[in-house]
Specification:
It is a single chain. This protein has 230 residues and is α+β, with helices and mostly antiparallel strands. It has two domains: 99 residues, Histone H3 K4-specific methyltransferase SET7/9 N-terminal domain (Single Sheet), CATH 2.20.110; 95 residues, Single Sheet (Histone H3 K4-specific methyltransferase SET7/9 N-terminal domain), CATH 2.20.110. It is built from three helices and 17 strands. The protein has a 17-stranded antiparallel sheet that branches. Strand 5 and strand 6 form a beta hairpin. The longest helix has 18 residues.
């Protein structure tokens, strides 16, 4: 009899344990605003986003993200209206960190670069819809700072120079789009104000204004490579 009672007690405890197992705390939540629907997974015990996160508008997927402990992680993706990938951005601990790419709506690469603690750093490349390189520039804390090159959509060099805090600085060279690809103009820039001092058609060119006269005089002393490349 004692054995039967003991066995019954064990079975009762097992049944109780099964009934009180921790249930999966991850639930799917939805929020609607006009034609937009946001759907995401949430840990209902800790009250934090945990899992996928997506936004659709009129039934079309617009954004995909992933959360871990309420922080963005992995690859954040955005989509064009035609369903093609628009952007993929690496995220770590809630911040943009690592490579990113943007795409034209035809699927061709539009832009690629790298985030460091949410700032764009290093080489930033931009492309035409036909896949040709359009511009390459050095970035520092999301500002254009350093050498750049621009290209026509046929692949020929269009211009090259340098930026300082998003503005053209020192020597700027501009090239012809035709088959010759010849250097057509040389300019000196200060804080984005660029003045021509040489052209293929006329050779040395006099300043076209008092401002240009001041810019050329000031920057020729600060940009010694100007005289060397003239």
């Amino acid at each position: 009899m004692k054995n039967l009672i003991f066995m019954a007690f064990v079975l009762m405890m097992l049944a109780y344990a099964c009934d009180n197992k921790p249930k999966n705390p991850i639930a799917v939540k939805q929020e609607k605003l006009d034609n937009a629907v946001t759907e995401y997974q949430m840990d209902t015990i800790r009250k934090v986003k945990q899992g996928y996160y997506k936004v659709t508008i009129n039934g079309k997927l617009v954004t995909e993200k992933e959360f871990r402990n309420d922080s963005l992680v992995g690859v954040e993706k955005h989509y064009h209206d035609n369903g093609k990938l628009k952007a993929e951005i690496l995220v770590d601990k809630g911040k943009f960190n690592g490579p990113f790419k943007y795409f034209h709506d035809n699927g061709k690469l539009y832009q690629e670069g790298k985030h460091v603690d949410e700032y764009i750093e290093g080489d930033l490349k931009t492309y035409y819809p036909n896949g040709q390189l359009k511009e390459q520039v050095v970035m520092l804390k999301s500002e254009m700072n350093g050498p750049f090159e621009e290209y026509f959509d046929n692949g020929k060099l269009k211009a090259k120079g340098s930026y300082d805090k998003n503005k053209e600085h020192c020597l700027l060279e501009m090239y012809k789009e035709d088959a010759s690809g010849e250097l057509e103009f040389k300019k000196i820039c200060r804080a984005g104000v660029c003045c021509t001092f040489w052209s293929l058609a006329k050779g040395d060119v006099k300043p076209s204004s008092e401002i240009c006269s001041e810019v050329l005089k000031d920057m020729k002393q600060k940009c010694p490579t100007t005289e060397e490349k003239k």
